[in-house]
Write a structure and sequence with these properties.
Family: To bacterial alkanal monooxygenase alpha and beta chains.
Shape: globular
Distance between the termini: 7 Å
Pfam families: Bac_luciferase
Structural class: alpha/beta
Order of helices and strands: EHEHEEHEHHEHEHHEHHHEHEH
Organism: Allobacillus halotolerans
Protein name: LLM class flavin-dependent oxidoreductase
Helix content: 40-55%
């Protein structure tokens, strides 16, 4: 099975944003050495919980620090940027690291309403033109002159190796739109747990080859906590359980230590919500997690599992990726 990394540069309790970005760099180097296929940085705004606000900038650093692994974004939130700017950024990345850059995009805001309006300089953010914006960006990356006068230009630098293009999604509509554009489909299973053969088949059956991708490619992003034993994994997963509980309550705080999470007061209702949210979080020994991923791959036929693992300890987080590589490579 092909494995990849999705990282949000989590700022865990007692640690700093600078430290979170340094840990993302360390993770990229380790993933490269282990043979992971790609590493993507997410985009989050207006939060103390994640430091990954400029994934395309971080991608430049990670690509420079690694040798083989593909580096990209998972994803750039298109509503905040013009097609020309996105095209120029990713063509520049590809010029420096040809054949290793992924242009992954999403249609969500990646932040709260205040962040959305600040990024739009106080204007009403447009959310109804995401696919059109994506089309224009792909044309500019591919050095195509369009009939749209606004984009009848060249995005510099010209003549670079095309990055792979990917659309993030979690629904049948996004699968169909992605297929029509001939780009890869990244399904966020840890968002809503709605992965289905119907959605993935819709993508496969409607895929139209493009300069960015000759055949359909699917990766599925999972939230994972793995350890040597199930008991250790459960201990390390408790802070993430609480973080997801906070998210359901409209809060977003920094990840607790396992020691603090162990004694965190939880009501019966809290425990029920945590149990429900575990459907979006794979927890177990490395062997159990690997078997779960293999079962899902056999059931849904995706090409690659993208692992997002958030532990308070960087050592424990790196261990997750090492253990899964050992089980699945």
């Amino acid at each position: 099975m092909k494995l990849s990394v999705l990282d949000q540069a989590p700022i865990t309790s007692g640690n700093t944003a600078v430290g979170a970005l340094e840990k993302a760099e360390e993770l990229a180097i380790v993933a490269d050495e282990l043979g992971y296929t790609r590493m993507w940085m997410a985009e989050h705004h207006g939060t103390r919980a994640f430091a990954s606000s400029a994934p395309e900038v971080t991608a430049a650093r990670l690509a420079a620090k690694t040798n083989q692994i593909r580096i990209g974004t998972g994803g750039v939130m298109m509503m905040h940027y013009s097609p020309l700017k996105m095209a120029e950024v990713f063509k520049t990345l590809s010029a420096f690291s040809p054949g290793r850059i992924d242009f992954g995009v999403g249609r969500a805001p990646g932040g709260d309403p205040q962040s959305m309006y600040a990024l739009a300089e106080g204007r009403q953010p447009r959310v109804d033109n995401m696919y059109e914006k994506f089309d224009h960006t792909l044309q500019l990356i591919n050095d195509e002159l369009t009939e749209d006068k606004l984009y009848a230009m060249i995005a510099s630098p010209r003549g670079v190796t095309l990055p792979e293009a990917w659309m993030l999604g979690s629904s049948g509509n996004s699968a169909l739109e992605t297929a029509r554009r001939g780009v890869g489909y990244s399904f966020a299973q840890f968002f809503n747990g709605q992965l289905s053969n119907e959605i993935l088949n819709m993508y496969r059956e409607n895929f139209i080859p493009s300069p960015f991708m000759e055949k359909p490619e699917i990766n599925v992003a999972y939230l994972v906590t793995a350890a040597e034993t199930k008991e250790e994994a459960e201990y390390e997963a408790k802070p993430q359980d609480i973080a997801r509980l906070w998210l359901m309550q409209g809060k977003m705080g920094q990840l607790l230590t396992p020691e603090d999470a162990k004694d965190y007061p939880l009501s019966e209702m809290d425990l029920m919500k945590i149990e429900e949210s575990r459907k979006l979080h794979i927890v177990g020994s490395a062997k159990e997690v690997a078997e779960k991923l293999q079962v899902e791959q056999e059931q849904y036929g995706f090409d690659e599992a993208m692992i997002c693992s958030i532990q308070h300890s960087q050592e424990k987080r790196l261990q997750v990726y090492r253990l899964l590589a050992k089980e699945l490579f």
